[in-house]
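Entry type: protein chain
Record version: 2
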Amino acid sequence: MSSNDLSEDEKTLSTLHQDCMSGAENFEAETKSRGEELKALAEAKKVIQATTSGAADLSYSFLQLEMSNGADLANFEAVRFVRDLAHKQNSPVLAQLAQKMATTMRSGGKGVFDKVTGLIRDMIERLQAEAEADANEKAYCDKEMAYAEGKISDREATIEKLSSAIDSMTAKSSQLKSQVATLQKELADLAKAQAEMNKLRAEENAAFKANSAEMEKGIQGVQTALKILRDYYAQDGKDHAAAEGAGNGIIGLLEVVESDFTQGLAEMTANENSAARDYDVQTKENEITKTTKDQSIKYKTKEFKGLDKATAETNGDKATTQTELDSVKEYYKSLQSRCVAKAETYAERSSRRAAEIAGLKQALEILNGEAVLIQQTAKRTLRGISKHA
């Protein structure tokens, strides 16, 4: 997961958190508003029951008389007001209520106000059901949003931790592989150098053997010649006059040659022994170096293979966690559309609901006024009947 994706997710989470807080405030305000509406409707119901129940039987018959004289129930102020309010607020609920009120009042008959009261009671029950549904939805959203946010935060933290571990193990493995490659090259160079040393040593030794054999052969030849000359000149009774002076010169010269040959062989042998010792020392050092580097390669190879295996497993864990994160985010997105997205703002809903509540209160006042007027009419009619009787 890249740092840009993580930053974008954190920004989205922050915005959603603000939306949730705003949604919670809106819910509380809406609940309070609905409570006030329910209270007003209940109070209106109570007033209607208290003011109309006793006079209903006496009044309705006369009310029907009064209304049968061509009065249009649909034009009653309460119905008109509720209908106008429904149109103004674009409220299907209020429009339906106005229609039911008009239909009920047109029907006339006994118990009309009880029927209107029933309509109000139905509205209260509906609002109560809506309030309960809203409360349940609010509790569900709060719980699920908090759960999803916690899961997202936890999974993102886990992915960040796993990514850091993967980066660290990958870097360490890469470093070890580089070191192993360097050691392997050094061993190859060492093997090449040892092979060259072996070849040079073999050539030097072969040359020494050949040259020393020639030197030894030369020395033996000189020594044989010296012996012959010495033996000859040492004899008595020679039949001719031996050139002893010249012979002594030859013997002296051969003695110098013998000395030179002997010294050359000694130097040759010394050089061979020194070269052999140097070769042996360097060969042993190379063997120690090779053993050390072989062990280092063995341990480093084992270590980076272990790191590669751990990295693969951690990548698997990261992929699993990423899948879980994607799933939770998808669920969270569905919660956003369900719990956060609204067709209208809280201010708009609050204003509309306040207007509806105020209108319903005024409609109830109008209904109460109509009831009083009808009762007064009924009393006047009853008094007239009594006097007539």
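Comment: Helices lie at 3-52, 56-67, 77-89, 92-107, 112-234, 244-340, 346-388.
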